[in-house]
Design goal:
Number of strands: 12
Number of helices: 13
Helix content: 25-40%
Largest sheet: 7 strands, parallel
Strand content: 5-15%
Shape: elongated
Strand order of the largest sheet: 8-7-6-9-10-11-12
Order of helices and strands: EHEHEHEHEHHEHEHEHEHEHEHEH
Amino acid sequence: MSRVVCTAVLPVDLAALIGEPVRQVSYGDLASALPEAEALVCLLTHRIDAALLDRAPRLRVVANYAVGYDNVDVAAATARGVAVANTPDVLTEATADLAFALLLAAARRLGEGERLVRAGRWTGWEPGQLLGVDVWGRTLGIIGLGRIGEAVARRGRGFGMSVLYSGRRPAPAAAELGAEHVSLDDLLARADAISIHCPLTAETRHLIDAAALARMKPTAILVNTARGPIVDEAALADALAAGRIAGAGIDVFEREPEIHPGLLASERAVLAPHLGSATTTARSRMAELCARAVRSVLADQRPDRLVNPEVWPVRRPAGQGSS
């Protein structure tokens, strides 16, 4: 039995990166593989909770193949002496590229245009056909000016956009980016394009609800490449159907892979299947970070990307089950 378990096929040879065999199992079969596992590499779609951790008395590290780690009960892992690692930085630029692509596609109604052409319904150029909204020179609002938010802000500045951002405290990079720190209400009211980059927490779940959408300009575009539940999908579908906002570019959903039927029906919604980090380079580097974290912990060395640093003094040693 391998002491390293992975819940998915990754676009690299994970065993070669770690330097020892890896047992690949489906998430549904994970519980049966955990009693002997010392390391787990999992996806953001796989919930690692207290009940599952209790099935893993030898587990020493959970390497989450994602930046976000809301799928892992970090407190439960820490209580059991299990290190939790993630994969920040390496997918920043890829995700920012996609966020800006979704913004441009929604603003210029590219999805509608492509469907028109592919259906054979395009009859030629017309002055009033599929008129969108401008991106160049407008105001970009960023909810959460972390690594990815900063990268999106840089792209916005390249388009001559002024940048607003909301967050609990001023961001260190704000001055360099020329970004103005404002309240969420102010951002919603002033921004022509709003891009979400905050983590999913109890406070941010449905942060963008019907009331928030009502504060936005009718010409505004909403983009979400963070986590699906930050946006109330039903409220967004209603806002799009009523023309209360101009469009949306959405890469993440509340109950993936399910999507609210109102969003599927909306011509003004550009929908992507969770492609934020979907470049060969980004996904390979994510796997490398997971492998590095596993190697470090199995060698009793502190990993670079440790979500719960407080666990390290009381981490679970090799070969020791829970008491």
